[in-house]
Amino acid sequence: xxxxxxxxxxxxxxxxxxxxxxxxxxxxxxxxxxxxxxxxxxxxxxxxxxxxxxxxxxxxxxxxxxxxxxxxxxxxxxxxxxxxxxxxxxxxxxxxxxxxxxxxxxxxxxxxxxxxxxxxxxxxxxxxxxxxxxxxxxxxxxxxxxxxxxxxxxxxxxxxxxxxxxxxxxxxxxxxxxxxxxxxxxxxxxxxxxxxxxxxxxxxxxxxxxxxxxxxxxxxxxxxxxxxxxxxxxxxxxxxxxxxxxxxxxxxxxxxxxxxxxxxxxxxxxxxxxxxxxxxxxxxxxxxxxxxxxxxxxxxxxxxxxxxxxxxxxxxxxxxxxxxxxxxxxxxxxxxxxxxxxxxxxxxxxxxxxxxxxxxxxxxxxxxxxxxx
Length: 373
Known about the structure:
Helices cover about 30% and strands about 30% of the residues. The protein has 13 helices and 17 strands.
């Protein structure tokens, strides 16, 4: 009877396995974001902390799963997890209510009832150099890889989308033009510099602006034919991040037959079967030198890429037909089978990243919903 009178958090603590330490959720979330910046995720994605118990919230046990299903949630409750890191976001489409009616709503209810947070990185983990696609590429054997769609630096000091530069005689007319430019919204970093052009003293004007402001700046400069002829417009682009982005184009150190590559993939993913489409004019003995891959659903990422092989979880029927017609073989392993194995590697790297402060465990209930029968 005394046990029933203890606060709920004390009851849960009594059932916990010994833990290394703990982290406050407010401390842990920034650490997870540092491991893989959420700014690398695709714009359509829903990443980050999705469910937050009322603070303060101490995290002793973090459960890793590829998909947060109801069996995985019950496992988290039984194992006293304080936070679930679900690779796929369980909340994607906006919820208009949180009731017991649908399984995704029930996940939120159960999480809050048991003070379990939910965090999802999804495509941020696809992009980083130490992420899912890098892990998947290890199944090909020794190879070098580059992103198929490189990521750009999420933050860059340059403001605006375009830079406009022109030279003008230092006259009262120029002062009027500059005054009008300053009145245009979304014009940044307006600078002037004295220069000598063809032996004449002139003023070099440089400014950054948005796409919308560019139209107004050009319209203003076009009123003076001489200024307009001397105008240069540069498109400002953020620098690419090395080894970061969606998908990978892998070049094998030594070519291997399609048959050998297939067996390597099955071994790496611990699968008894995969689906294989052999490219037109190719056989199981055909050499594979370049392989393009994308964990999960790869149709949009792989489309149009020149390679000997496409490796992904799933593709549409017609995208497979297109690849095969172009002489590209395709290996499909089912969506989450190309992702789930990464979690074991993630557990080890996160343990180091978080300085061994919390207990990190893998779900035993998480599995791909499809099976071969």
